[in-house]
Specification:
The chain contains 14 helices and 2 strands; from the N terminus they run H-H-H-H-H-H-H-H-H-H-E-E-H-H-H-H. It has about 300 residues and is mostly helical. It has one domain. Strands 1-2 form a two-stranded antiparallel ribbon. It is globular. The chain starts with a helix and ends in a 7-residue tail after the last helix. The C terminus is likely disordered. It is found in: Cell membrane.
Length: about 300
């Protein structure tokens, strides 16, 4: 797909990556303050659903039938993108260094390329191959300061699950029918994802610890509700809306490659918010990731 619609898809994909990228640096102080990763996912999803509930219902007026017919696609986005991928990544961080987990998870675009190739749907173009190589090199450079030789098997399996579910998220998001407003799809998927995690929490399968202890950001104590609200509104509501809309315009493969920009954004936000100065390798990695994304043609490919 070419022209203005493809350009709009690129803007949406970059918006999604920028929105998602702020979550890690803002949620890290909350984890340090005692919140469990699962609880953060649940609360940010519920905040997102609450913020978008009225606009989502308004957008769906006159389209209830189409939205109902797309219920399985919306449910899959919620279960895979909201619940499974975020839970798997959080679990991987318990036994893996952050860099190793990130490197595995954000290899998702390459998984989509390989799947399309093996399934015989389309052989990767030269630009796709170059983009894959540049992106993987960039991810390795960004993650390298936190990578070591501790490859816990369980942690690797969780990170691999995160990689697969992220890839599946982009595929399912691209399949949400255009007749369903993206904002309405986000509301439904956030509620479903949060509900699934809440049930796991009630069953005692996952930890859902919440605390009102003030997290520390840039050496200053801040209200506990401030970072989680910011993440719920920007990194979740705006991020998932832009991501689903971009996936429907660009297709799963292109949208997934743009999603890797989240890593570069997270490093930048960590530098500004947490005073974690990026290394030369991380800066070079960000350039490689950007170059990889820029190499992808913005033609639609489901």
């Amino acid at each position: 797909m070419k022209g203005p619609k493809a350009e709009a898809g690129v803007v949406l994909a970059i918006t999604a990556a920028a929105s998602f990228g702020i979550s890690g640096p803002l949620l890290k102080p909350m984890i340090d303050a005692g919140w469990s990763p699962s609880a953060l996912v649940i609360v940010r999803s519920l905040i997102s659903a609450l913020v978008l509930l009225v606009p989502g219902l308004y957008a769906a007026r006159g389209r209830w039938s189409q939205t109902w017919h797309a219920r399985y696609d919306i449910a899959m986005v919620g279960l895979i993108g909201v619940a499974a991928s975020q839970l798997a990544f959080a679990q991987s961080l318990k036994t893996l260094p952050v860099g190793t987990a990130i490197l595995i998870q954000y290899s998702a675009p390459v998984v989509i390329v390989l799947y399309r190739w093996i399934a015989g749907r389309a052989a990767p173009s030269a630009s796709t191959m170059v983009a894959s190589c540049l992106t993987l090199c960039g991810l390795f450079a960004v993650a390298s300061p936190n990578i070591d030789n501790r490859l816990d098997l369980i942690g690797v399996l969780w990170a691999t699950a995160a990689m697969v579910t992220v890839a599946l998220y982009y595929v399912t998001a691209s399949r949400v029918p255009h007749t369903v407003p993206a904002i309405s799809a986000v509301v439904g998927s956030q509620i479903i994802g949060a509900a699934a995690l809440l049930m796991l929490g009630f069953a005692g399968i996952i930890d859902t610890t919440i605390t009102t202890t003030s997290p520390v950001l840039q050496g200053q104590h801040i209200p506990w509700w401030l970072p989680i609200t910011t993440v719920g509104v920007i990194a979740t509501a705006l991020g998932f809306w832009a991501s689903i809309a971009a996936s429907r315009v660009l297709g799963s493969q292109k949208a997934a490659f743009f999603g890797t920009l989240e890593v570069a954004v997270a490093v930048t936000v960590a530098w500004l918010a947490l005073a974690e100065t990026p290394t030369a390798a991380q800066i070079i990695g960000g350039v490689f990731i950007t170059a990889g994304v820029a190499t992808m043609r913005t033609r639609y490919e489901r």
